């Protein structure tokens, strides 16, 4: 079976776009393009955790509601959420009302703050796990990888929640740590050019004051 379908412009796109009309714009403009913005990276990790057991279409349809509910995924603000905020979010029909996942976002916001204090940025840490040449499977044939397993283990060790290898692999696909567009997809070369031009964020080494 072909891994592509024709898009609105008659050009091939990854087959998963055919599941919903709104997937084409997300696929063409976001999926697989490299990201170094900490809030966007944190948002995607959170949304991938909310997706667990659900479809991405459900999450994408509610994304703006999630952004409003979680202050555009500013983890500094989210880390200050209290039980009162949890109860408020559990009443918010615009998002996924799952206590465990909501509490995980708050927990992960605290862990993100700790990580940033140690390493300068979430981006610097995440991009350390970008797989090298020859370490990436044929496009759209895997649901996890050595790199996603390593990043998952690393985040769990730091106390993050709902960040299993499959969730992390989806995150890596979406945030451009790998280019998983199908070989015949017309967007694959654009994503590859963006990755080639992308400056990987450098780790900031914290020097203790004397």
How would you describe this protein?
The structure is a single chain. With 210 residues, the protein is mainly α. The protein has one domain (4-197): Orthogonal Bundle (Endonuclease III, domain 1). 50% of the residues lie in helices and 3% in strands. The chain has eleven helices and two strands. It has helices at 23-29, 38-51, 56-61, 63-69, 75-78, 83-90, 99-119, 122-126, 146-157, 165-174, 188-197, and strands spanning 4-6, 12-14. Strands 1-2 form a two-stranded antiparallel sheet. Strand 1 and strand 2 (12-14) form a beta hairpin. The radius of gyration is 18 Å and the shape is globular.
Q: Which terms summarize this structure?
A:
mainly alpha, Endonuclease III, domain 1, two-stranded antiparallel ribbon, disordered C terminus
Instruction: Assign a percent range to the helix content.
Output: 40-55%
Low-confidence stretches: 205-210
CATH architectural name? Orthogonal Bundle
CATH topology: Endonuclease III, domain 1
Tell me the domain tally: 1
CATH homologous superfamily name? Hypothetical protein, domain 2
Describe the oligomeric state of these chains in a short phrase: single chain
How many strands in all? 2
What fraction of the residues are assigned to beta strands by DSSP? under 5%
The chain-level mean pLDDT equals 92
Biggest sheet strand order reads 1-2
What count of helical segments does DSSP give? 11
Specify the structural class: mainly alpha
Protein name: 3-methyladenine DNA glycosylase
Binding site for Zn(2+): 14, 27, 181, 185
Pfam families: Adenine_glyco
Keywords: Metal-binding, Zinc
């Amino acid at each position: 079976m072909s891994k592509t379908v024709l898009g609105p412009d008659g050009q091939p796109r990854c087959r998963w776009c055919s599941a919903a009309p709104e997937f084409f714009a997300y696929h063409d403009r976001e999926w697989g393009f490299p990201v170094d913005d900490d809030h966007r990276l944190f948002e995607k990790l959170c949304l991938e955790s909310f997706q667990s057991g659900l479809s991405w279409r459900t999450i994408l349809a509610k994304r703006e509601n999630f952004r409003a509910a979680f202050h555009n995924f500013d983890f500094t603000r989210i880390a200050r959420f209290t039980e009162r905020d949890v109860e408020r979010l559990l009443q918010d029909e615009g998002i996924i009302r799952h206590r465990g996942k909501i509490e995980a976002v708050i927990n992960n916001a605290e862990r993100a703050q700790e990580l940033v204090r140690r390493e300068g940025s979430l981006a610097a840490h995440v991009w350390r796990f970008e797989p090298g040449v020859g370490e990436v499977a044929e496009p759209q044939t895997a649901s996890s990888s050595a790199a996603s397993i390593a990043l998952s283990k690393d985040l769990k060790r730091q106390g993050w929640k709902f960040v299993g290898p499959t969730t992390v692999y989806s995150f890596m696909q979406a945030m451009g740590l790998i280019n998983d567009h199908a070989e015949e997809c017309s967007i694959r070369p654009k994503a590859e050019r963006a990755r080639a031009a992308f400056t990987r964020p450098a780790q900031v080494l914290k020097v203790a004051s004397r």
